[in-house]
Design brief:
The chain is α+β, with helices and mostly antiparallel strands. The protein contains nine helices and nine strands. β7 and β8 form a beta hairpin.
Length: 286
């Protein structure tokens, strides 16, 4: 994506019958995300990191057959009592022979970290205390925690209907990465994607995903008003979150395409907006 003046465009609403929550099959989901990350890495200025994210996603997929604790999808509860440290060890073994030397140093630190320290760090991440965890270690801890929370979210009963569409995940309570406009059978519907359990929940279009205001939205992009990735910025609460359209790019993946478009985050921030969610491979610094 080349940096250019931001464009501002309206977003038409869309609605029809829908499933309130989507829980995609994890094996298929991880394979698709890893492939998209590698495709986006070609010629990208963040190529090495996008490939690393693909390798981490592959390592998450390698954990699918491992035991999981019989716990509800409560991130802090699973961080404290789940089996995810064993998943982390499996991920580290999968990653070690594939990654560059500086990354192997971070993996070695994680390998040597006592389980109590691992759990303390994971609890801090689950509670949003990102500044309490070494940023070089945090994405790997998050990925292992995510691998267990994601399975717990798929085994848990679905929550009952609510009057409002929540800004955070109705299954595990985590903030979204971005929203996605779907294609295929769900064409035109918008779903928010959870940064931890990788489930999706519906939210009507043309309203702020953070505060619900519909009157002060602006859509920012570097391309055309029909760009597949735009920042939905809200003048009412000052937040923004990206909208990624699979109608305009059928291969788009919420996490991968969000990560590959961090330059748009810089531009939205420069215009005075704060991001209301985060990417699991670009965790907040505080």
């Amino acid at each position: 994506m080349t940096e250019a003046p931001l464009l501002h465009a309206p977003q038409p609403p869309g609605s029809h019958h829908f499933a309130p929550i989507l829980r995609p099959d994890l094996a298929t989901f991880y394979a698709r995300r890893a492939a998209r990350l590698r495709a986006l890495a070609a010629g990208h200025e963040l190529s090495e990191y996008l490939v690393l994210a693909a390798q981490v996603t592959d390592a998450q997929a390698a954990c699918l057959g491992a035991p999981a604790a019989d716990l509800p999808p409560d991130p802090a509860g699973i961080a404290a009592a789940g089996l995810w440290p064993a998943l982390l060890d499996r991920m580290l073994a999968d990653l070690r022979p594939k990654v560059a030397a500086p990354v192997r140093e971070a993996l070695a630190q994680l390998q040597a970290l006592p389980e109590a320290a691992r759990r303390t760090a994971a609890i801090a991440l689950a509670e949003g205390r990102f500044d309490a965890v070494d940023p070089a270690l945090a994405p790997f801890l998050w990925a292992a925690l995510s691998a267990e929370v994601a399975r717990a979210a798929r085994a848990a009963p679905l929550p009952g209907p609510t009057a409002q569409e929540p800004p955070d995940c109705p299954l595990c309570g985590t903030a979204p990465v971005a929203s996605t406009i779907l294609t295929g059978d769900d064409q035109g519907l918008r779903y928010l994607h959870c940064a931890l359990c990788d489930c999706d929940w519906h939210m009507v279009r043309a309203k702020c995903t953070n505060c619900g205001d519909a009157g002060q939205l602006d859509y920012l992009s570097f391309e055309t008003p029909e760009a597949p990735i735009r920042a939905e910025a809200c003048g009412a609460c000052g937040s923004y979150l990206k909208v990624i359209s699979q109608e305009r790019d059928r291969e788009a993946d919420t996490v991968a395409d969000d990560l590959a478009s961090l330059v748009l985050d810089d531009a939205a921030s420069a215009e005075g907006f704060g991001r209301s969610g985060f990417n699991p491979f670009a965790l907040p610094s505080g």
